[in-house]
Amino acid sequence: MKNILISKESVTQIDELKKEFVLRYLVLMLLILGFYTLAFYLGIDNHFLVYYLSGGFLFILFLLLYAWKKPFPSIINHVRVFLILAPLYDVYFIVDFFEMSLNNITWLLPIPLASYVLLSKKDSVLYSIYSVLIVVVAVFASYNMNLNDGKLYRSFFNITEISAFIFNGLIIWMLVYYKDKIKKIRDIEAVAKDDGQKDKKERISLIIDKDKEQEYIDFFGRIDSQMKGEMYFKDPKFSMSKLCIILDTNSSYLSKAIRTAGYSNFNIYLNSLRIEYVKKLINESDLSKVTLMYIYTEGGFSNQPNFNRVFKKIEGVTPSEYIQNLIKEK
């Protein structure tokens, strides 16, 4: 999808998601460094490595406490600095254990993805090049330095290999998860802007392809199940754009499925669900204890005039008349 200008509200939502990811990432890294520090402290007599890991642990702890006490006003610069320092911190492990395993190089894999999710595609390319250069320098250094005889690594082979795989998997999963959430916000914004242009075409083209009628009927079953199951209609701001994102479809296909089911457009279908829910509330509620305002807001209507208009259009009577008739019947 092409780049579009998004609203300030969407920018704020994306920024909050990025800050949330940074905090959770710092917590995870704190646990990872704490795990390795404790493991090497208890299992191997290598003071330098324990101090090195402890230093990383304290640095992450400082960042976490700083972020918690004083939330980042803007995470961009913080992320750039961290993505520069993190590969440099990993150089020692790559050099020290290179002859035994390439496992420590995997800690650099999340760097390009993190820069892509939190920064931009251009930054992703630059940090990918930077990570490759770090590996080249580390490999060159490993052939000219002998920091460790490999005994430490062999003793902790299972811990370093398996745990590194698990921890990196968690980091990448977090990045993909937040990338998807950010993409959904951008997609909703894009679909909302496209809807204005597509609306006119939708009103002109009302013919359903008969060959696909059963396909549309089946898809409407999915729509109806999702709408009623999750009660999306209770959200006053719920739109066809949001439903398209949820169902991973386009507005044209969704509109045809709704028309196949007998509704002329999405809004009529949405309002019919709301009115059915309102009628259910009216029938099940003690009207002497609840207000009509509570009932129609629960049903997804933001104001009474709109509620009254939609109710009369669908039911043929006003809400007050409907309630009076219901009382008479009882």
Structure description:
With 330 residues, the protein is mainly alpha-helical. It has 2 domains: 8-186; 209-329, Homeodomain-like (Arc Repressor Mutant, subunit A, Orthogonal Bundle), CATH 1.10.10.60. It contains 14 helices and no strands. Mean pLDDT is 79; it is low at 199-208.
What is shown here, in short?
This protein has 14 helices and no strands. It has 330 residues and is mainly alpha-helical.
Tell me the layout of helices and strands.
Layout: H1 8-43, H2 47-69, H3 75-97, H4 110-118, H5 121-142, H6 151-155, H7 157-204, H8 213-230, H9 240-247, H10 251-260, H11 266-284, H12 292-298, H13 304-315, H14 319-329
Helix pairs in contact: 1-2, 1-7, 3-4, 3-5, 4-5, 4-7, 7-9, 8-10
Main traits of this protein?
Arc Repressor Mutant, subunit A; 2 domains
